[in-house]
């Protein structure tokens, strides 16, 4: 089997990179075994560079991504036929202590139901918003295929890069590619990349949500089509599903912070592994091999800029082809 570019991993990062490369005219094969515990399946999809405290180059990537999101989502929707809910109406940070109030000053009055957050003194609104990460990945994969790309439900087990190309080892066969992009999320250490799993659990409750995402203390809440998403835990290591420690943390947090959710029915429990690293690695690993890994808590936010950067690096300094 042959391809121009093999992309290992079709999560938030790999699916957008694969779509962007295919759209730029390369023949892409995406390897995606749909591993349980992928981050994109659990992700909140907040686009919140300021509330997440990004600075320097990462803040620049985040701001670029926020600018790119509307046109990117339009193009994905047109090509795939999949609707991708995107709302860019800001994010709130709520102050409850003196220190938080001082850090966020001048405080603005909170809209309902955030005015009912226990101990709330007011808050501050920042640019940003949210996208539905599951719809985004589904749309990018569908668009990739509609543009002529290929998705194999296969796990990459290793690779060899040589002057004449890269061999990617699958369970029963070898995929030969001219270039390889490693985007296997929290599993990327398998390919020698410095990434570790940081588990996150979250809840979907059938209750009233604010209109935009809101950060309160150690967690946050945001609107979803079927209710309100409350997240998230953060623990080192692997774990196949949510466990009692995570559920207790989330229940205590929701109970202590959002009194109106006290009796809201539980709709879903999410658990996924963020690909944690010192900082994202978006660039060359060795000749013909590229990495797009280590986006930690902000992979959905940083995905459009990541796809643009990698596409440009792989194609050379031409005008970038993605919206
Ligand atoms: C609870 C939670 C909340 C989050 N909230 C936000 C948020 O609000 N905003 C934000 O920006 N980010 C958020 N994140 C983080 C975000 O989801 C991740 O940064 C992002 O999904 C990383 O994308 P990725 O493609 O690197 O990894 P993933 O999305 O995990 O995808 C990796 C893919 O690689 C595949 N794979 C693994 N091994 C192989 C292999 N050997 N061969 C082929 N394929 C392989 C997997 O099947 C998987 O689909 C959150 C994460 C969690 C867990």
TrEMBL record:
<dbReference type="InterPro" id="IPR036188">
    <property type="entry name" value="FAD/NAD-bd_sf"/>
</dbReference>
<dbReference type="GO" id="GO:0005737">
    <property type="term" value="C:cytoplasm"/>
</dbReference>
<dbReference type="Pfam" id="PF01266">
    <property type="entry name" value="DAO"/>
</dbReference>
<keyword id="KW-0560">Oxidoreductase</keyword>
<dbReference type="GO" id="GO:0016491">
    <property type="term" value="F:oxidoreductase activity"/>
</dbReference>
<feature type="domain" description="FAD dependent oxidoreductase">
    <location>
        <begin position="5"/>
        <end position="313"/>
    </location>
</feature>
<protein>
    <submittedName>
        <fullName>FAD dependent oxidoreductase</fullName>
    </submittedName>
</protein>
<dbReference type="InterPro" id="IPR006076">
    <property type="entry name" value="FAD-dep_OxRdtase"/>
</dbReference>
